[in-house]
């Protein structure tokens, strides 16, 4: 018997292998067709009188990486009762596999995530290759495991371990899985099949009692009422604190486990399905699933672009400050040797120190060995000259944000590299077309805008100039991906994508300060909305001088809506040389905490500075604060999409999430508009029209509202 995605292979002695091998795909996922094939395969096994044992395997590098989310979006929009039944129908397949009268063993050769790991839990024994990883990452999509994960895992590894695995949604190594009892055997990958068959033979012979191994999964948790209360109540407090108020799935998973603790498997699965259906229909799940699909779309686009990329064996960075050192660290730690050039020896030492500090942190956390750190540091070569630049494939310019200086440095480096070498500028605001004017080969030049701190921020904006070639874009995208970053290709304009959108948000903040509102109240409202930090705190982290310069560029580029009528809060602090965290004082004063990190505290010296720019005292509600901050940001995102700065809504929203920490559970600015309703958002913006052009919807957005159009297609609900 042979299926399209599941091969049924007779292995002799009554052993049947179910091998997952989804045609045309690099990984196995559980889509409707695969699950239907699995149902048919298990049904056939149930009727096989000669069956003595079942082995589950994968023909791909990974086992099964989870459900095919794109297929299940429609199910998420079903009424709760129908979604529950849909979930339970999959559980019936897994339960039928678990209830076979013969032992079952799964050979986990690579990633087994979500539903892929849940089917492993339904088997009697789990054998895992040393390099494989398992986990239940569903909470990252705003849901929790719905195919038996909340039922079987705590009965196998205990409540505390199961809560930790599910609430964090992390992947776990074979060693970690073995330690808690999530798997039974760990072997080198080359011995996986042999070990799985040996284990199955021992179970068939009766040496291993598969019914005894299966029994705990079918019964209630072996905890009395007091033990249950102690285990779950302490877990709930910790999980709620870590997840925060905007992410309900981790706590819901704990509550589901607690509610089903005294039940046998089938009743417990019904409890799980009920909670799963409720979460799957929530706005948070819709946004987080949307982000997941956006991320997948970005990756597909980047992979397509990479096909035209030139090889990258040697990189270079110009400028050895904090940013240059961060880029050097990122390149070296990912195995790409990099030259780090500056004109001053102290600057080189600063860059090396920055890279060494980051590598030491990785070593302290156990993410690399001393030898790995030594290799990475050895891959960074400091230099005061262009002597070795003839062998460089890509150069990232990261000198001071000054057009004149950048043009001079770019012209110098172009003379030192090969004619086909790619040159990219890490500018955050200066026009790529303007900088390209200094080059003989502008087709080899583009922007490569990293976000600070480089090692933490996932986004890289790859900026296309008017003369930039597809090869330059493709090679820069490929380099960004090799660095572990998420590149988004954008077209040239003041501020590119993220900063262009961010500064209208700061414009909203300026209007609130001008209205006499307290900065701490503004920060509190925005942080409660979900931002990692409010606008005043964010400006301090960015640097008041950096923001002042960038705002000047934005005003020159978009004077009709970004010019302020008078001095702003940023102007007031800049003139007082309160430059933010870097100077110890900005909108807040900064003290060093016990861990050596800056801690913000209120500074009474700020109040008179802000009063000097408070020209129109107003009484505004928290809702007004939120709207005055968010409307300009959302409208500028719309304009970027309409102007072709970015090609898709997915790229615009991901740029905001990855670049400035837009609350992920809200999905991005365009999804935020859609969640409200485009017509409703336009009406809201019109209520604040008196605050100027930043609050005026575009004609195209008004047309979308009238016609009922959307930014995202029907496949992303």
Automatic annotation (TrEMBL):
Q: According to the UniProt record, what class of enzyme is this?
A: lyase
Record domain 3-hydroxyacyl-CoA dehydrogenase C-terminal: where = 495-590
Q: Which UniProt keywords apply?
A: Fatty acid metabolism, Isomerase, Lipid degradation, Lipid metabolism, Lyase, Multifunctional enzyme, NAD, Oxidoreductase
Catalytic activity as recorded in UniProt:
a (3S)-3-hydroxyacyl-CoA + NAD(+) = a 3-oxoacyl-CoA + NADH + H(+)
Query: Part of which pathway?
Result: Lipid metabolism; fatty acid beta-oxidation
Any one Pfam family match given in the protein's UniProt record, by short name: ECH_1
- Domain 3-hydroxyacyl-CoA dehydrogenase NAD binding spans what residues? 315-493
Gene3D superfamilies for this protein: 1.10.1040.50, 2-enoyl-CoA Hydratase, Chain A, domain 1 (3.90.226.10), NAD(P)-binding Rossmann-like Domain (3.40.50.720)
| Similarity section | In the N-terminal section; belongs to the enoyl-CoA hydratase/isomerase family.
Q: What is this protein called?
A: enoyl-CoA hydratase
Q: Which gene encodes it?
A: fadB
């Amino acid at each position: 018997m042979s299926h399209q995605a599941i091969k049924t292979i007779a292995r002799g002695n009554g052993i049947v292998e179910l091998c997952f091998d989804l045609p045309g795909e690099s990984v196995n996922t559980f889509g409707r067709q695969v699950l239907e094939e699995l149902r048919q395969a298990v049904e056939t096994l149930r009727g096989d009188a000669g069956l003595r044992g079942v082995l589950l395997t994968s023909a791909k590098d990974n086992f099964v990486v989870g459900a095919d989310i794109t297929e299940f979006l429609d199910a998420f929009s079903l009424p709760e009762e129908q979604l529950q039944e849909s979930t339970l129908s999959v559980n019936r397949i897994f339960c039928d596999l678990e209830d076979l009268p013969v032992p079952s063993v799964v050979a986990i050769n690579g990633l087994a995530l979500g539903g892929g790991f849940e089917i492993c839990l339904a088997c009697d024994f789990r054998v895992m290759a040393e390099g494989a990883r398992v986990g239940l990452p569903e909470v990252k999509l705003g849901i929790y495991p719905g195919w038996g994960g909340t039922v079987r895992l705590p009965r196998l590894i205990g409540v505390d371990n199961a809560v930790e695995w599910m609430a964090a949604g992390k992947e776990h190594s074979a060693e970690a899985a073995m330690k808690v009892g999530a798997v039974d055997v760990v072997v080198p990958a080359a011995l996986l099949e042999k070990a799985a068959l040996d284990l199955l033979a021992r179970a068939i012979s009766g040496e291993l009692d598969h019914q005894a191994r299966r029994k705990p999964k079918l019964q209630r948790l072996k905890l009395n009422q007091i033990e249950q209360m102690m285990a779950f109540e302490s877990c709930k407090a910790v999980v709620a604190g870590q997840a925060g108020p905007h992410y309900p799935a981790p706590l819901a998973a704990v509550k589901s486990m607690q509610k089903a603790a005294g039940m046998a498997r089938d009743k417990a699965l019904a409890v799980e399905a009920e909670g799963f259906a409720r979460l799957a229909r929530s706005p948070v799940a819709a946004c987080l699933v949307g982000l997941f699909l956006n991320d997948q779309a970005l990756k597909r686009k980047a992979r397509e672009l990479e096909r035209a990329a030139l090889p990258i064996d040697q990189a270079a960075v110009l400028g050895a400050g904090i940013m240059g050192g961060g880029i050097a660290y990122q390149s070296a730690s990912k195995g790409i040797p990099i030259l780090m050039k500056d004109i001053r020896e102290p600057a080189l030492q600063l860059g090396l120190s920055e890279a060494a500090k980051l590598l030491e942190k990785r070593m302290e956390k156990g993410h690399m060995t001393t030898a790995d750190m030594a290799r990475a540091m050895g891959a960074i070569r400091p230099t005061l000259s262009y002597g070795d630049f003839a062998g460089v494939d890509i150069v990232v310019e990261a000198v001071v944000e000054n057009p004149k200086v950048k043009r001079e440095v770019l012209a110098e480096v172009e003379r030192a590299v090969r004619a086909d070498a790619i040159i990219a500028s890490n500018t955050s605001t200066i026009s790529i077309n303007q900088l390209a004017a200094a080059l003989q080969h502008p087709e080899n030049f583009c922007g490569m805008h990293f976000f600070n701190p480089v090692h933490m921020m996932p986004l890289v904006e790859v900026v296309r100039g008017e003369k930039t070639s597809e090869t330059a874009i493709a090679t820069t995208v490929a380099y960004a991906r090799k660095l572990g970053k998420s590149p988004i290709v954008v077209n040239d304009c003041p501020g590119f994508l993220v900063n262009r959108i961010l500064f209208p948000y700061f414009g909203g903040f300026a209007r609130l300060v001008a209205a006499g509102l307290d900065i701490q109240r503004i920060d509190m409202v925005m942080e409660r909305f979900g931002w990692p930090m409010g606008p005043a705190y964010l400006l301090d982290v960015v640097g008041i001088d950096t923001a002042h310069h960038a705002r000047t560029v934005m005003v020159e580029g978009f004077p009709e809506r970004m010019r302020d009528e008078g001095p702003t809060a940023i102007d007031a602090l800049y003139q007082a040389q309160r430059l933010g965290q870097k100077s110890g004082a900005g909108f807040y004063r900064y003290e060093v905490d016990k861990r050596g990190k800056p801690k913000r505290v209120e500074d009474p010296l700020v109040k008179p500075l802000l009063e000097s720019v408070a020209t129109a005292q107003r009484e505004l509600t928290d809702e007004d604060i939120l709207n005055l901050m968010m409307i300009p940001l959302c409208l500028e995102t719309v304009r970027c999409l309409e102007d072709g700065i970015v090609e898709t809504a997915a790229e615009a929203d991901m740029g905001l999430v990855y670049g400035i920490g837009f609350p992920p559970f809200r999905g991005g600015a365009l999804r935020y508009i859609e969640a409200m309703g485009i017509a409703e958002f336009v009406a809201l913006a019109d209520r604040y029209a008196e605050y100027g052009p930043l609050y005026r919807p575009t004609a195209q957005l008004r047309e979308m509202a009238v016609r009922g159009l959307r930014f995202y297609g029907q496949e992303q609900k």
